[in-house]
Amino acid sequence: MKVLRKIIEIDDEKCDGCGNCVPSCAEGAIQIVNGKARVISDKYCDGLGACLGECPRDALHIVEREAEEFDEAAVHELLKQQAQAEKSTGQRKPAMTGGCPSAALKTFSDTSCDCANQPRVTGSGGPSALGHWPVQIRLVPAGAPFLKDADLVIAADCVPVAYPSFHRDFLAGKAVMIGCPKFDDTQGYVDKLTDVFKKSGIKSITAVIMEVPCCSGLPHIIQKALENSGMDIPFSQVTISARGEILS
Predict the structure, then answer these.
(1) Which residue of 68, 77, 85, 93 is 20 to 30 Å from 238, comparing CA positions?
(2) 196: left (phi over 0), alpha (psi -120 to 50) or beta
(3) For the chain, what is the mean pLDDT?
(4) What is the SS3 assignment for 115?
(5) Per-residue b/e over 25-50, b at no fewer than 16 CB within 10 Å?
(6) Would you list the DSSP string of 136-170?
(7) CB-side neighbour CA atoms (13 Å) of 180
(8) What is the dihedral of CA 102, 3, 63, 8, to 10 degrees?
(9) Are 184 and 138 in contact (CB under 8 A)?
């Protein structure tokens, strides 16, 4: 059954078949076919846009149109088939649970010698560095006084949980907005941040995201909002591992 929903559209004229978008699609919906990236079936595409930031030619966009409903069971079967195909060719692919690396189950053991020898990040304790409320992107008004001339941190929801020194290292003296590029309204985020950048005189933007593929949508949202706003604001990005370490 077809429904009106958001889905990825690929511009054939812009796509050069580089394949950068393929690994970022956790559902396996994008493949290179005859030298071009294709969504092989609407039912595999969740329309959340984790792939958008990977295209160097801006060929991928989210559109709203009549499409087959997203079919999670079909995605599981597709990923199973792709894993079997990769196994037969000797290529290794990270194991996934539930079809998306963001939802992969992980257990962090303190008893393994390997884990014991890894550097661990410890919390700083101390007082909260949060200087305002609310913090959710959807709830912060574009004209909020704490955004005026602020250095702004835009973090993925999972970051403060994974990174123990988030307050000490990222919040002190800064405004913060948080959200999830996978589960929230992507276009709503673009519109809200565009408004913020136009109205608030933001001095700098730091995106803090997790290493999982779906988080790559957040920098893309920020860049799109910057483009829409016409503002030239310094923008940097920090990526955090699931173990709470800064990767880049």
Answers:
(1) 93
(2) alpha
(3) 83
(4) helix
(5) bbbbbbbeeeeebebeebbbbbbbbb
(6) BTTTS-TT-GGGTT-EEEEEETTHHHH-TTHIIII
(7) 8
(8) 40
(9) yes
Of 217, 226, 235, 236, nearest in space to 197 by CA: 226
pTM for this predicted structure: 0.56
The answer to whether 99 and 27 are in contact (CB under 8 A) is yes
What does the block give as tokens for 16?
Answer: 């050069």
**39, two tokens:** 């969504």
List the structure tokens of 4: 């009106």
Interacting residues of 89 by C-beta distance below 8 A, sequence separation 6+: none
Token duo for residue 168: 């000490």
Which residue type is seen at 182? K
CA angle 118/123/126 to nearest 5° reads: 160
Nearest residue to 159 (alpha-carbon basis) of 234, 205, 215: 215
DSSP code string of 169-185: IIITT-EEEEE-TTTS-
With residue 103 as reference, give the H or E element that holds it.
none
Q: What count of other Cβ atoms lies within 10 Å of the Cβ of residue 141?
A: 13
Q: Tokens in use for 35?
A: 């030298």
Cα-flanking dihedrals φ and ψ of residue 147, to 5°? -90, -15
Say if residues 208 and 154 touch (Cβ distance below 8 Å). yes
